[in-house]
Design goal:
Six copies of one chain form a homohexamer. Chain A has 128 residues and is mainly alpha-helical. In chain A, helix 1 crosses helix 3, helix 4 runs antiparallel to helix 5 and helix 4 packs across helix 6. The first copy, chain A, is 74% helix and 0% strand. Chain A has seven helices and no strands. Chains in contact: A-B, A-C, A-D, A-E, A-F, B-C, B-D, B-E, B-F, C-D, C-E, C-F, D-E, D-F, E-F. At the A-B interface, helix 3, helix 4 and helix 6 of A face helix 3, helix 4 and helix 6 of B.
Chain lengths: 128, 128, 128, 128, 128, 128
Amino acid sequence: MEDRFEKGMSILKITNPDNIESIFTEFEDIAPDLARFVVEFPYSEIYTRDTVDLKTRELCTVASLTTLGAIPELKSHIEGALNVGCRPTEIVEIIMQMSAYIGFPRTIEAMSAAKEVFKQKDLLPVND
Amino acid sequence: MEDRFEKGMSILKITNPDNIESIFTEFEDIAPDLARFVVEFPYSEIYTRDTVDLKTRELCTVASLTTLGAIPELKSHIEGALNVGCRPTEIVEIIMQMSAYIGFPRTIEAMSAAKEVFKQKDLLPVND
Amino acid sequence: MEDRFEKGMSILKITNPDNIESIFTEFEDIAPDLARFVVEFPYSEIYTRDTVDLKTRELCTVASLTTLGAIPELKSHIEGALNVGCRPTEIVEIIMQMSAYIGFPRTIEAMSAAKEVFKQKDLLPVND
Amino acid sequence: MEDRFEKGMSILKITNPDNIESIFTEFEDIAPDLARFVVEFPYSEIYTRDTVDLKTRELCTVASLTTLGAIPELKSHIEGALNVGCRPTEIVEIIMQMSAYIGFPRTIEAMSAAKEVFKQKDLLPVND
Amino acid sequence: MEDRFEKGMSILKITNPDNIESIFTEFEDIAPDLARFVVEFPYSEIYTRDTVDLKTRELCTVASLTTLGAIPELKSHIEGALNVGCRPTEIVEIIMQMSAYIGFPRTIEAMSAAKEVFKQKDLLPVND
Amino acid sequence: MEDRFEKGMSILKITNPDNIESIFTEFEDIAPDLARFVVEFPYSEIYTRDTVDLKTRELCTVASLTTLGAIPELKSHIEGALNVGCRPTEIVEIIMQMSAYIGFPRTIEAMSAAKEVFKQKDLLPVND
């Protein structure tokens, strides 16, 4: 078990080093297993496989979370995308691409979330 | 106007040469403009930009359509992904990654759709 | 109680005279109350009010069911829309309008559903 | 009519005695009938039937609202679940179970909502 | 190109004169093309066609955005509906009608959004 | 690892003994890990915990899958619910309860799915 947890944490240290602790703190007094599941399932079982590189994985997760309208997780994965080497303009481009599949309301909501992340990291304006 | 249409068609000839006509045939006696919008908006305005390559775009669209549960469009974009050079194992990996964000029911449904496309193209079994 | 049921049935006789019985038949040996709820709640409580006319109501329901991706109910309400005087071209136009809010996959799916209904009623091609 | 309303209110006095008035106050100057529908339809027609006990009903509603991502109603039904005798650990367990069907983003969002309700009622930490 | 943009802006000046600039300001330093797409695609290509009047279009969009749970865009289109001549009571009625198709949680959320818009415009209470 | 798999299989032998093999067969030549994840994650990590009994868990899953509109998985969990001792009338009641939270279209679709399962198992008509 420890092994799976450690494996997941090693990926999270690459993708989200700044807020790696927050999900444990958030759920320690209500559902610590939920935080453990997040580390052990997606990060240990999936993100560790080298079929697809982390950059492509994070852009695909940005696409999925934009489609789902899951704004807090989207912001966290926009940070993850930046941390594994995606340029802001690539993230913007993928969110914009989603407009064809989900329409403008959810796309606009996701772009505003991206803007907040970029602003906080002093990455505005976004240029090619 | 012609220009935008031609530009979109030039991408569709790369991503979906085999079924490029089907959406026009489907809607010619009810809503020809809807088919035109698909060519002119996502394909002409978005897929033509070189910020992100077509392979990454198609994988992100596979992620979005899996999340959305839009099976017929998903199958068409799995074909598109193959046509721009994605390996079956990469498509499988991205669908599998979605399980963390959308749960197993929609992931299973999307994987079955991928299996149908691969079967038809004699691409089973999928190996790394 | 009878009163509410009768009131709902009087609307259904206008909007869906041909398949008014099908929901009762479908659920009589499993959940007859569910069929009763459909008659008594939306049709008796809502569709009977004259704030909005039946034509506008049915177009708004077409918009909602297209957005929801609920194809069997969508087909039934496309029939309802025709029965209260909507022209096929208006129904097509509202489905097409949805593309901006929900993207192309669900819009295309809804348009194909409309085409099936119109074909069965010999209403193709749709012209202004 | 009075009868249906009274019947629904008698259940609401059990499940949500503290905020029974809020939906009427919220909508009295815009859509009083919407508040009436909530009392008369789910509470009078459905929750009064004894096929399934209130505890199981509330847990199933927690499952549905977690799946839907409807946070304000979820909080209200977490209170309802507590009021009909569910232990916090059962509510946490059902939300956690949802991760398999809807993925982590919506599950995390629902767990944070549960934490807010439990905190306000001094029910943290949650133990078995 | 200019032409399509101008055409879209001419509709937006009717439906949303007060906040026509906000989407450009919001995205000018991150994704100006997304703002352009909104003007050029739904407003220029769709809302300009006279098959369906603007009042019906806006009510159908209110129905769709209520179904989608897209609250900021919903508020903007409730304003749009008022600006093209819909009475508050019609908007309320269409939101209420949605309860049959999407259930109470999303309907309640949309009605609260409508209440905020009406309050800001001093349109409460809503009467027939 | 073996342990987690065995633990999950021991629950699946109770809930779905008849179709325990089908997910492995379905995905063996495309994504065998996806089948393994389903056994190891929800069944091993969640369904084995005794905070909530299997009957309540399956009814909550029926509620979630009805809300999600995931019909093939819903049918499989209706079978699961029957296998752990739920009466058909309880399953019907929970699906009916969902109408308040998700509206009639998805509820009707789920009830038709339940009817198919019950018919195949000769459990119609459903009585209290």
